[in-house]
Amino acid sequence: MNVPLGSGFASRVKAIANDNHVITVCRTGVRSLHAVNELQEAGLFVKSLRGGIVAWSNTYVTSEVHVPDALSGRMIQMRRLSKGCTSYLIGDRKECVVVDPSSKIEEYVRTARIEGFRITHVVDTHKHADHISGARRLASTTGAQLHLSPMDSYCFEGYRPLADATSIGLENDRVKIMAIHTPGHTQGSMSLLVNDRMLLSGDTLFLDGVGRPDLQGSVEESARQLFRTCEKLFDELDSEAMVLPAHFGSNEDLMTAAPITAPVSIVEARIRKADLSDPASIAGRVCNLPKPANYEAILKINSGQASFDPSVCDLLEEGPNRCALAAEAR
User: Any idea what the CATH number is for the domain that residue 148 is in?
Assistant: First the structure.
């Protein structure tokens, strides 16, 4: 609840704090400390979020995901709590692939080191609109091969084109990663099928919806592509295959030790119950949705049209991700 400091602050907070327990939040954790003092004097039990929203934006939680049919294969799901973003490390023995890394590339370097992996491949499933990608810098820093879909119109070279049915191989070859072209959210969106049993779906499929089709390209054409993509995935994938998206919803338990995932059958049932039965309904649902904050500037950075400035990264990324079209039944 947004309750700014000012006249009557304590009484306004008491009116919504049913159990008298409050956490105060501001951008950097300074003004929230002033709020703590005022609320404690009013008899509330109060804590301040240390470091504020800036620190929250750099907080990650990890969970391990079992990789079927691979004794030494491992997958780490990394959740960036403030943005609702999810990245993945897929490893076998000493190598790993990083999928959809955020701009905080030190988190992936540190996690790979702890897990005993060397980063050899970096993949973006699509050109992100809600946050700055770390894929290009992470590949450059670690010497890894960068994989991107050329259909998403990147303005730089030095990456390996990611196309439908492309395989990304690790030395041991027990973890098989195959790209599937899943357009709709973007023209070049790719999903990664791991050992035929796990789908890293990027922003195409979420556990409770689909990726919105109105951020890049024609809304109508993207909606048609998205509809065809969903039908293809539901028809061709094993119904028990696990969907692992690049975003998680607000209803998820963010701090759980278990990975955030669901089988294809559950995701399909949720989407089919919603008003997503044809391209026109998909396009109609997004026409009044607010866009992600600063998405045009973020797209320019991620495409290579603008340079990356770490000093403004947190400002550009503030706010919810807003890349999902929730499958809420009507």
Answer: 3.60.15.10
- pTM, two decimals, is 0.89
Please say whether the beta carbons of 144 and 160 come within 8 A.
no
Examine residue 219 and state whether it is found in any structural domain, yes or no: yes
Q: Are residues 161 and 15 in the same domain?
A: no
- Dump pLDDT digits (tens) for 285-294: 888 788 888 9
pLDDT digits (tens, 9 = 90+) for 202-223: 999 999 889 999 999 888 899 8
Q: Are residues 48 and 159 in the same domain?
A: no
Of residues 62 and 69, the one with the higher pLDDT is: 62
Active-site positions?
26
Which pLDDT score is estimated for 112? 97
Of residues 324, 326, 321, the one with CA closest to residue 57: 321
Same domain assignment for residues 94 and 175: yes
Percent over 70 (pLDDT), the chain: 98
With respect to residue 19, please indicate whether it lies within any of the assigned structural domains.
yes
Q: Specify whether the backbone of 329 is left (phi greater than 0), alpha (psi in -120 to 50) or beta.
A: beta
**Which conformational region is residue 52 in: left (phi greater than 0), alpha (psi within -120 to 50 degrees), or beta?**
left
What does each C-alpha distance from 130 to 26, 167, 245, 328 come to in angstroms?
21, 27, 15, 22
Instruction: With beta carbons less than 8 A apart as the criterion, state whether 124 and 133 touch.
Output: yes
- Check residue 300 and give its pLDDT: 97
- What's the total number of domains in the chain? 2
Residue in 17, 93, 84, 81 with CA at minimum distance from that of residue 55:
81
Residue 300, domain member (yes or no): yes
Q: Are residues 110 and 251 in the same domain?
A: yes
pLDDT one-digit tens code per residue, 168-187: 988 877 899 999 999 999 99
Same domain (yes/no): 70, 147: yes
> What is the pairing mode between strands 118-123 and 145-148?
parallel
- Domain extent, residue 50, equals 9-54
